[in-house]
């Protein structure tokens, strides 16, 4: 395998390629804790445009995003595609989690309004479904691509839970206020501090796997996090 990037005195940081500020906020400390330096798209001067997520799996969409942003920015990019999978709904909302209220169609509303509408639809779809049949999981597939568009690493993480009947908690984003975390189902992920969620989340599990693949396959290629990284 050709090492990426070519040996250089200044290893490159990885760009976290997402338009979702909630994900950047979760991923930055996770990677810093793993000793890997990251920047956000907003830290770069290069303007980017968001690719269309046309895949029908998390893997396909994460690859579309990582490759598109790596080509546009000329930096190694890490993207994730994530979502909620609810057993009683045959796996919905799945890959359309961020646009569930519109059935996957583009939704011009601000993110907070979209999240509220998605949560309302989820509750409506599960009306009358008893607690023990509301099992669900967050899934995250993460892909690291280089500027030539080659996939360097890929990983999948899951977090098990159950869908609550009413929203609770102030932290996180998306479906967090409705996601009762296994095994005790007492608190939603929006009631956990960011540190608590980061210790067990689908995104943290995928990030850990990516970090160990980087350590094994591309040692020294990427910038280390500075000691005072957030
Ligand atoms: P990017 O594509 O720019 O990364 P996005 O929010 O559109 O941002 P996805 O396509 O991966 O990201 O959709 C993920 C959706 O799944 C997200 O908008 C939430 O509705 C939901 N989701 C994923 N992880 C979550 C988490 O940790 N907590 C709550 N909801 C989550």
Q: What number of structural domains do the residues give?
A: 1
What is the architecture at the second tier of CATH?
Alpha-Beta Complex
Radius of gyration over C-alpha positions, nearest whole angstrom: 18 Å
Please give the order of strands in the largest beta sheet.
2-1-3-4-5-6
Q: Helix-strand pattern, N to C?
A: EHEHEHEEEHH
Beta-strand portion reads 15-25%
Number of strands: 6
Q: List unreliable stretches of 5+ residues.
A: none
Q: Separation of termini?
A: 33 Å
Secondary structure tally, helices: 5
Structural class: alpha/beta
Helix content: 25-40%
> Describe the biggest sheet?
6 strands, mixed
Q: Give the names of the bound compounds.
A: inosine 5'-triphosphate
How would the global form be characterised?
globular
Q: Mean of residue pLDDT?
A: 91
- Fill in the CATH topology: Maf protein
Describe the 3D structure.
There is one protein chain. The protein has 230 residues and is of the alpha/beta class. It has a single domain (14-228), classed as Maf protein, CATH 3.90.950. The protein has helices at 21-33, 58-73, 111-125, 194-200, 202-217; strands at residues 14-16, 38-40, 77-86, 135-145, 151-163, 179-181. Strands 2-1-3-4-5-6 form a six-stranded mixed β-sheet. Helix 1 (21-33) packs across helix 5. The site of inosine 5'-triphosphate has 21 residues, from strand 3. Residues 18-20, 23, 53, 65, 81-84, 97-98, 118, 138, 172-176, 201, 203 line the site of inosine 5'-triphosphate.
